[in-house]
Amino acid sequence: MLPESPTVTVQPATLADIPTIVSLAEATWEPTYRFIISKDQLEYMYRVIYTPASLQRQMSEQGHQFLLLHYDGHPSGFASFSAKDAGIYHLNKIYLLPSHQGQGLGQQLIKAVEDIIRSAGGTALELNVNRYNPAISFYERQGFQRHREEDVPIGPYWMNDYVMRKELA
User: Fold this and answer.
1) Which pTM does this prediction carry?
2) Distance between CA 79 and CA 97 in Å, rounded?
């Protein structure tokens, strides 16, 4: 008898899911950025982006839609996106627990975002990724292309990013 394959679900997150998002961010943020940005910048950005109050503002005031990915019933990743310009959306965040990376879950999360955007009439999805982040190759495998470079101030720090774009025709 073959073992059952784990179930994967992706569903919209609500304000009630903020503690889960914070917990996932705590487990993913430092391993993602520790070799890319300084410890001080890492801590500063985390405090700016992932406090419950900040996440509530993102959801309630800034139009960010969050999705939670559950693997075998356990929260294992999340993404957020928002509308930018006519038909263009921005993938603000996508994180998976390090133990769950490399299993196709990130691809499923991006597909879920793309499906929602397409159904809303969106034509393109953009994201910012640090120019030294190994995830660039993951995004390229998902069909994103380097669109331009952008240096983004965050408090006293700078994020040196590529803006990557995928047409959703």
Assistant:
1) 0.93
2) 12
